Amino acid sequence: MIKAGIIGATGYAGAELVRILLAHKDTEIVWYGSRSYVDQKFAKIYGNFFKLVDNICGGDDVAALAKEADVIFTATPQGFCASIINDEILSQTKIVDLSADFRLKDVSVYETWYKRTHEAPRYLDEAVYGLCEINREKVKHARLVANPGCYTTCSILSLYPLVKEGLINPDTIIIDAKSGTSGAGRSAKTANLFCEVNESIKAYGVTNHRHTPEIEEQLGYAAGRPILINFTPHLVPMNRGILVTAYASLTDPAVTEEAVRAVYEQYYGGETFIRLLDQDVTAETRWVEGSNYVDIGFRIDPRTRRVVVMGALDNLVKGAAGQAVQNMNLMFGLPETEGLLMPPVFP
Amino acid sequence: MIKAGIIGATGYAGAELVRILLAHKDTEIVWYGSRSYVDQKFAKIYGNFFKLVDNICGGDDVAALAKEADVIFTATPQGFCASIINDEILSQTKIVDLSADFRLKDVSVYETWYKRTHEAPRYLDEAVYGLCEINREKVKHARLVANPGCYTTCSILSLYPLVKEGLINPDTIIIDAKSGTSGAGRSAKTANLFCEVNESIKAYGVTNHRHTPEIEEQLGYAAGRPILINFTPHLVPMNRGILVTAYASLTDPAVTEEAVRAVYEQYYGGETFIRLLDQDVTAETRWVEGSNYVDIGFRIDPRTRRVVVMGALDNLVKGAAGQAVQNMNLMFGLPETEGLLMPPVFP
Amino acid sequence: MIKAGIIGATGYAGAELVRILLAHKDTEIVWYGSRSYVDQKFAKIYGNFFKLVDNICGGDDVAALAKEADVIFTATPQGFCASIINDEILSQTKIVDLSADFRLKDVSVYETWYKRTHEAPRYLDEAVYGLCEINREKVKHARLVANPGCYTTCSILSLYPLVKEGLINPDTIIIDAKSGTSGAGRSAKTANLFCEVNESIKAYGVTNHRHTPEIEEQLGYAAGRPILINFTPHLVPMNRGILVTAYASLTDPAVTEEAVRAVYEQYYGGETFIRLLDQDVTAETRWVEGSNYVDIGFRIDPRTRRVVVMGALDNLVKGAAGQAVQNMNLMFGLPETEGLLMPPVFP
Amino acid sequence: MIKAGIIGATGYAGAELVRILLAHKDTEIVWYGSRSYVDQKFAKIYGNFFKLVDNICGGDDVAALAKEADVIFTATPQGFCASIINDEILSQTKIVDLSADFRLKDVSVYETWYKRTHEAPRYLDEAVYGLCEINREKVKHARLVANPGCYTTCSILSLYPLVKEGLINPDTIIIDAKSGTSGAGRSAKTANLFCEVNESIKAYGVTNHRHTPEIEEQLGYAAGRPILINFTPHLVPMNRGILVTAYASLTDPAVTEEAVRAVYEQYYGGETFIRLLDQDVTAETRWVEGSNYVDIGFRIDPRTRRVVVMGALDNLVKGAAGQAVQNMNLMFGLPETEGLLMPPVFP
């Protein structure tokens, strides 16, 4: 049994890790780390785990936990993982960091967008960007995995094959993304109260959301050069789900939907968790809720010669905890899909 | 592998059966029966099963299916199961009927409340009312199980120990129930459109909802005599979940919360799927969503000497498909919890 | 023009007062009092009033405001109004208090249920309970009106004629109430976050909610003796609306629906804001949203001889700000319906 | 009093016309035309109007109605208005058509996108496109006004000044729009059931939604040449509201936010119903619900030199019934804002 510790277990992503790991046949959760709820019963904070989890929340002493756990998930605010990581810890345990600390290779980009000093830049090179479908082989040998953001996972997977194959002009990429409210976290803010979110939709972080450089870096690798994109997230009155609607101009106006589809098939045909939708179907978040699947579809506009790509995933699963477990599976040599094949829950 | 056929697979309860059985290690779904979608791909109707189910919807020929399937789930409108059942079918397969056809022992009660003639009253005696926690032993030997209704399961389990032990006066029982909208089914009705349900709550079936006699019959067995109750269901703007708030006068005004709790513990202490809540906690549907658990709690009002019992479950799982699979497990000698231990999904 | 000041303008009820008073042809709002947002633009807090209200939020100095305003609405936490009220203020202005400070005549009941010392018990006698349809004449001559609670307004109006006329046994009254989430206020609490409320329903304050004694007092006046009831509020995932489902035993089992209806007609037939529903219709909150109407309907259960009464209103309008303005209209000799005839908004 | 007739009064837009006209001091509704509910009480279909509207639904005989009504609103499916209009009717009454029949000047564009033959192309020239803020003078003298679509109103108003002043390259315009579900109408379709819409978001009509050519035509007038855009609508789990997020490249990369803002001020500074948001605020549908306001804001991305414009309105008010009444006011020489100044309802 893999002994797993969770730091930040009382956030939504942390609690989703608990849900997934409880049903994972090769893991045992040994630590429910929290900052706000130390010494309280975890199941008092998340009543869904009543009678399923008896543990008390512990603190966030990663150094101590590293001696006990085979893998530590840090579902923590920006800066935490960078502030505690060191060689000794990495010699004792593997780390899957769900924060942004090790996602960006260029420390100055991190410090510009996150407006904080990076406390452990020397691990940036070693850290593997844990987008399994792209970096599978590297993840297998990693000690430190930077688990991608929710918007990022959906955006990159939706566009990666088109950029990599040069089918679209990367400078024309516009990503309009929509997220359920669990993406805003569980801290008590007026803006996230039921009555403020319900019956409304808004954009936020317009032109400056922190997932922008992460998307640009990864798609830039695919393009072979730095790129700039527009990325606009929106808050939607639903609990879970991310929908990405991405626009880009085709480099060859004569390319057909069949040709584009063939490229997607080539990249994703063998992937369990990426479902390339039929041509008459568009992505809907309801079809992936609770699961680790990403649904991707597209249309070519015959008039403007732009492609419109739509991707949908569950922000807490493939966008956070599910992908973290997928990374863990790879890091420990388990079947990549272990514990992650639960069908989407609808309605 | 148990070969399972589903008639009514394209309703919400039917589709939930698919979700649960897909993850059940001892079953294989051999038939996706539908009336509205014959010859269409099941995964076109329920996109969550895209790439997970390749099957085409079949019709509702139970006689043919009985030759192939070890168990048939009929998640069908009232009257269907009664119209097709016969000895030959029952000699070939087991049936778990999710409709009301075999829930009421008294055919005249059925005909009065459902306003239709019962086509197979001779099976009423044989049919076992499939509330596993109450009728476990009978279910194990049944060929025909009448799977309880969603409101009913929640209402009966919430009150059963109190009635059985004579702690409350059954004639004072008032059940005020609230249900998510999936309970209203998937047929296209104006009253169930998003804009009609969202931002509203209403009672319906006031004084005449069909689950009333079912609750009365089962609680009447516990009371040892016929009883009459008030039952009022409400439609709530959420997808899943039933909350029952039940009121009754204590027979002994001096009884303590500890004593009442002890009775609940005596009946349900060993039950996996019934979670008796701590005394400072009230039942909330969010904590059971997607799972087979029923959460039950209560308070005694020291002023009126009434007990207020609150029960919560997921209407599609413990209130329909989950309980049906729990019954199937018992009927086939499998562990009762097989395929049903998925933790609740929150948020 | 009546000069109106609002203390607590940045709560949901306060902001609803702004919405109503802006459209009221005889009033001018001269003060937007707040505790949390002093010196900020009101329209920055409530973007719906952008370009409609230019004012800056002021503090809560009622003594100063009393010199300027003809009427002051205190939409403030319990204890505030009692802590500031005095003869000088009441000689200068009229007060409509939306808190519970002056709703209960018996100070010991207040102190028991609200767990605080009442700072101005000498005004309890003078204060008029502002349920206009019941206390209309008294309100007209009041200096200090205690505006009823939201649950209370709906509960009392639904049952008042039946209690007053002795049609039901008051000791059998059970009120099961359901509220939209704006009733929980705008302060930032985890329990009221979108993801916590959405897709869930729960009871709260079971057996001890503070609106209980208010209902008991008012219905006790109607009964001519003290009564005890059960009152259970529930939180529903919607912004606005209260639905009350009330149960009581008929004193005369032979009474007909026509007879009960005649009593309702006698009491409410002339009321603008009470709509007695047709006998085949049940109350739904969607039909009153945004308006000052209360919809009331009922059924007699021929089997249990209980009456089930259902009432629906908008908790922020008839349950708070609308009723406060209705009281103001009466206090100033204006037509009672002035500024309150906006039709409900649906969907 | 202006006598107003409504054809299609039982759709959501028709019912919203009723709500607005009931509170309009210069109009009287003389006809509640319906196809599905003829001879039924209107208030039985829309319970919010119980006791407010006593009328029975009539049919759709516009020729007869024209003799009685000063203005007829046709809130009807595509093709209806074109099928009944003639000179006699237009000599007797004014028409505000809420369908698309007379929005597009080029009949071939209509026939291509709507896949039907236009039955009255000879009125296309006369019809005035009723976007009041753009075509105010023409509307004043019109007999036949084509009331703009909901997406269209929001899209055009958001971008018009930028296109007209040449600040953006029209060929780069991408409009990503999000709508509440009332935009999908009140007919009973499975796809619009509560459980299908709730907890999900999806795009639809990708590359081929019928509002596309309407936006292109109007912005083409502003540009002085034909343009092609991408327009993608999305269905959001909320009742009302449209949010448009539009992207376009600046023609002069050096243009400042102040300069862009000045242009918006120049066009909209005097408009009552267009609220140009402060630079630190983004449009949110919750702030316009129930009202005739459009909120518009923008950001310039300093990295990509694109402008991101966000507009929000209530699809049933400024996107349908409110704008129709605004047009009526202009057509009859009333103050343009008459009956339309109700503040937005929040929460």
> What percent of residues of chain A adopt helix (DSSP H or I)?
25-40%
Give the overall silhouette of chain A. Answer: globular
User: Mean of residue pLDDT of chain A?
Assistant: 98
Largest interface: A-D, 46 and 46 residues
Tally the helices of chain A. 12
* Structural class by SSE content of chain A: alpha/beta
**β content of chain A, as a range?**
15-25%
- What is the number of beta strands of chain A? 13
Distance separating the two termini of chain A: 34 Å
Strand order of the largest sheet of chain A: 8-9-7-10-13-12-11
For the biggest sheet of chain A, the summary is: 7 strands, mixed
Kindly provide the radius of gyration of chain A, computed on alpha-carbon positions and rounded to a whole number of angstroms: 20 Å
Q: Quaternary status of these chains?
A: homotetramer
How are helices and strands ordered from N to C of chain A? EHEHHEHHEHEHEHEHEHEEHEEEH
Low confidence ranges of chain A: none
What are the SSEs and their pairings?
4 copies of one chain form a homotetramer.
Chain A: E1 2-7, H1 12-22, E2 27-33, H2 42-45, H3 62-68, E3 71-74, H4 80-84, H5 87-92, E4 94-97, H6 107-114, E5 128-129, H7 132-140, E6 144-146, H8 150-164, E7 174-179, H9 194-197, E8 202-203, H10 211-223, E9 230-235, E10 242-249, H11 257-268, E11 274-276, E12 294-300, E13 306-313, H12 317-331
Parallel strand pairs in A: 1-2, 1-3, 3-4, 4-6, 5-6, 7-9, 11-12
Antiparallel strand pairs in A: 7-10, 8-9, 10-13, 12-13
